[in-house]
Design brief:
heterodimer; A: Pyruvate-ferredoxin Oxidoreductase, domain 3; Rossmann fold; 4 domains; seven-stranded mixed beta sheet; 19 helices; 20% strand; B: Rossmann fold; eight-stranded mixed beta sheet; two-stranded antiparallel ribbon
Chain lengths: 591, 299
């Protein structure tokens, strides 16, 4: 929600800027610069982009929501639209709010629609950039020209953004940096007489150190901080950037990330490293997770600590490879043959990717079992600014335990959580274990004994019940009792929180929670749900045959609470705040 | 594979120390001889007990880890090689041995064989090839000869069998040998050379399934009237792909011994080189410092 962006000389607290062009025009880098600027000037930011799933680019947008205070979502509607082409203009004018401002490239956009009080400002992005850079420059650099223009309009910190650009382009060559600065200055100086400048209010997030980056980067960094040093993967959108990052970074941390021939090899190789005594990770997106599911089930059975990341995209099958969806929850929890309990966690935003990864590392080791991290395309690719994590508090030193095993050690004790003896460890009794996916006795010998299978199944399940018992009830945002509680998981966190605030300001008694631990679920939910007349679960997956989304189905099974209802969206894009508010108001009105 | 075999063998392991569960294989199964031969070689080379790591997928022969008293892992069907790769790359101190059959290695796990070979991962792989699916009781395997009847080919197999030796040569394995479970001395020699070879070493061992395909390898067994003809390493150009391919032209019964042997940097060495380089550039910074520096670049 943008509170005020009416053209005026007063400062504004929020600005939603939508850049629409082609993916090869560098509109992402305008967004990245604005994001980094926000992070380093105590402002908050959230971005949203679409990427065509074609090879050579195509229409693409990048939306930036800048705010002086907390920014929870990329913005329902834009205050400012920047249109590079006629198709960008035609396709995105409707996303601009009434009375918003549209900057368009007057070299490319010809037919204007005068509607809803929109202010049109034509600027020849292309020719002005060519003129500014001179020489045989083509239109490359018009993104930087637009960045200059926006910095002027919103009175952003020009000095800081020059530093950011110098750091980015200065390494390449002086010529490139010179051209970049020429394009930027030309945009900054371009006269936009039709409107007054709209200076952004100073940032209020004065934490000393703030970072700005995307969710996949933060997830990868969290894995490193949590002690992961080995991994394996296969490229698939939108997971790939994590494997690229770890491939380059892990050698510095004395670790290794291997690109494999397929998803099956990747999960197997990670299990090999985990069996060897390291904390290891594999990851993918929906279709790849399906391919890994047999081996993940093995890790449940053999009780191997393993971290499996799934960056969800639109499904099923190849589906919508570059769009967001939350439809892999059931796959993550149940996607293996047999009863194969595993832990599933979901980060709520970019910052939370870091802490969720560390929690995954902790739980994988403690319970010697696979932990799946369900992030999604929206969190993976968007930029946010947040406080730098305190490594004194969160850093976990990796260890390789090769101590000799005592006489009473067994790989699969019925009364304890499994702790494997890594290869290379001596055994005081000279009796070495076999780690296995066959049902086994306490020593790892294959066993078809009916009662043994039942006991071992219970052993693997009970450790997750133990975890559930230790999980606190998630903290409620808003009212702790009243008419409606929103329950969300993953990236719906921001829009749900904003919807909660908006409804409270309109007099509703509502609250919201976001579940990081989606499997097992915290025990306290049952009592918490009793405090409200309605429970509404917004999810980016289908309502299915029985009318409930995937989390809602699980919550109904866990709590037997018939008040749980769903609001679902499967358009490959995140919820708008208004959609959540509307669904909640309808539910309240119905009763 | 090689590496810590050079460590002075302190006390040699006895067969008793190496034996675990009694094998569940059928009487007279060729796999017994492979197991015995493995014990022989491990004893002879003096590999420290705790450094032995036995890996297998699924199949009769893949039950191997249960019969060896050593660290072992019994994995899923076809994926023993990538699992073993994870062990080998992350734990260079271990001796990684992979055992499996023709279905596990050439059919469901066929893709991984190509890639483990081309990457030259440091491990030793023994394929106990019996030309049939035994654990599931007599279905056609990827090496079943044309015309051989099975439960899935009641009129006789119609698909051309794969040529494992040619495939291994083409994929870039750096040590490729072929042996016969009825020739224990020869197996011992092949296994020993495979273990001492740095890189990806494979020994395809014809191992008779006495239950479902008795007599399959009689033509390579002099005691059954066959011929056990050896590769002549004096005249054979050992690191020539063309010469090795020549040997693969006829495998019924074909020649036994080393088909191809060459030296190429292992995946293990190449990955470690990157680690060592990266470490040397870091200097005194701790890993925690490194992450802090990364954060600083994101401000």
């Amino acid at each position: 929600m943008s509170q005020t962006t009416a053209p005026s000389s007063d400062t504004i607290r929020n600005a939603v800027i939508r850049l629409a062009g082609n993916s090869q025009d560098g509109i992402q880098s305008i967004g990245a610069f604005l994001g980094q600027l926000a992070g380093s000037t105590a402002q908050d930011v959230m971005t949203y982009m679409t990427i065509p799933s074609t090879i050579s680019g195509g229409p693409s947008i990048f939306q930036v929501h800048l705010g002086s205070g907390e920014v929870l979502h990329p913005g329902d509607e834009a205050d400012t639209l920047v249109a590079f082409y006629q198709h960008s203009y035609d396709g995105h004018l409707h996303t601009l709010k009434d009375g918003g401002i549209c900057f368009y490239d007057s070299d490319n956009v010809e037919e204007l629609k005068e509607e809803r009080g929109i202010i049109h400002i034509g600027v020849p992005f292309t020719s002005a950039t060519i003129e500014a850079i001179g020489g045989n420059a083509k239109s490359r650099g018009k993104n930087i020209f637009v960045l200059g223009l926006l910095c002027a309009v919103y009175q952003l910190d020009r000095e800081r953004i020059s530093e950011i650009m110098s750091a980015k382009f200065g390494k390449k060559s002086e010529d490139i940096l010179r051209n970049v600065m020429l394009a930027f200055d030309a945009g900054y100086a371009w006269p936009v007489h039709d409107i007054e400048h709209m200076p952004m209010a100073p940032g209020e997030n004065a934490a000393e150190k703030r970072l700005s980056t995307d969710g996949n980067t933060m997830l990868a960094l969290g894995l490193i901080a949590g002690g992961v040093r080995y991994g394996a993967g296969y490229p698939i959108t939108p997971w790939t950037s994590i494997m690229e990052f770890l491939r380059s970074e892990l050698p510095k941390y004395n670790g290794m990330f291997i690109q494999c021939e397929d998803e099956l090899a990747a999960v197997s190789m990670a299990i090999g490293a985990a069996y060897s005594g390291h904390l290891a990770i594999t990851g993918s997106s929906g279709p790849g997770l399906a391919l890994k599911s047999e081996a993940v089930g093995y890790a449940c059975m053999a009780e191997i600590p393993l971290i499996v990341v799934n960056i969800q995209r639109g499904g099923p099958s190849t589906g919508l490879p570059t769009s967001v969806e939350q439809s892999d929850l059931m796959q993550a929890i149940y996607g293996s043959p047999g009863d194969a309990p595993r832990i599933v966690l979901a980060p709520r935003d970019v910052e939370d990717c870091f802490y969720t990864a560390i929690e995954a590392c902790r739980l994988a080791k403690k319970y010697s079992t696979p932990v799946l991290i369900l992030s999604d395309q929206a969190i993976a690719t968007r930029l946010e600014a947040f406080e730098e994590p305190d490594l004194e508090k969160h850093w976990v030193e990796p260890t390789l335990d090769l101590t000799e095993e005592d006489a009473d050690w067994k790989p699969y004790p019925l009364d304890k959580i499994t702790r494997h003896s890594s290869p290379g460890s001596r055994s005081s009794q000279e009796k070495y274990p076999v780690v296995t996916g066959l049902e086994h006795d306490e020593w790892g010998h294959p066993s078809g004994n009916p009662l043994n299978h039942e006991k071992m199944t219970a052993k693997r399940r009970d450790k997750l019940i133990d975890l559930a018992n230790s999980l606190p009830t998630p903290e409620v945002h808003g009212e702790t009792s009243g008419s409606l509680l929103f329950v969300g998981w993953g990236s719906t966190y921001g829009p749900i929180k904003e919807a909660t605030d908006r409804m409270i300001s309109e007099g509703h008694k509502v609250g919201s929670i976001n579940l990081r631990h989606v499997h097992p679920l915290p025990n306290g939910l049952t009592d918490l749900f009793e405090q409200y007349d309605h429970i509404l679960v917004p999810e980016m997956n289908d309502s299915g045959l029985y009318g409930y989304g995937q989390l809602a189905t699980l919550l109904r099974a866990k709590t037997c609470n018939g008040k749980i209802e769903s609001v679902n969206k499967v358009q490959g894009i995140s919820f708008r705040v208004l959609e959540i508010v509307t669904a909640a108001e309808a539910l309240i009105a119905k009763a | 594979m090689s590496d810590s075999t050079t460590a002075a063998p302190t006390e040699k392991l006895t067969k008793k120390q190496l034996k675990a569960d009694h094998p569940t294989w059928c009487p007279a199964c060729g796999d017994f001889a492979v197991l015995a031969s493995f014990f022989n070689v491990v004893q002879k080379l003096g590999i420290p007990h705790e450094k032995i790591c036995v890996v297998a997928g699924i199949g009769c022969s893949s039950r191997f880890p249960y019969f060896v008293n050593a660290h072992g892992i019994h994995f899923i069907h076809g994926r023993a090689l990538p699992l073993a790769t994870g062990i080998s790359l992350s734990r260079p101190d271990l001796h990684v041995f992979v055992f499996g059959g023709d279905g596990d290695g050439f059919s469901i796990g066929g893709n991984h064989l190509n890639h483990a070979a081309r990457k030259n991962v440091n491990l030793s792989y023994v394929v106990m090839d019996n030309f049939v699916y035994g654990l599931t009781k007599n279905q056609t395997s990827p090496t079943t000869p044309i015309g051989r009847k099975s439960k899935t080919d009641p009129r006789g197999a119609i698909d051309r069998p794969i040529n494992p030796m040619a495939q291994l040569v083409a994929s870039g394995a750096t040590f490729i040998a072929r042996s016969h479970a009825a020739q224990v001395k020869h197996m011992n020699e092949m296994f020993e050379r495979a273990i001492l070879h740095p890189g990806f070493s494979v020994v395809e061992t014809l191992s008779e399934c006495t239950m479902f395909y008795p007599g399959a390898f009689d033509d390579g067994n002099p005691r059954k009237g066959g011929a056990f003809e050896l590769v002549d390493e004096e005249t054979q150009e050992m690191d020539s792909i063309e010469a090795a391919m020549g040997l693969t032209a006829d495998l019924s019964p074909g020649k036994f011994g080393v088909y191809y042997e060459t030296q190429r940097p292992t995946k293990n060495e190449l990955e470690r080189e990157w680690l060592t380089d990266a470490q040397s550039k870091i200097g005194d910074a701790t890993q925690k410092d490194l992450l802090r520096q990364r954060f600083a670049s994101m401000r």
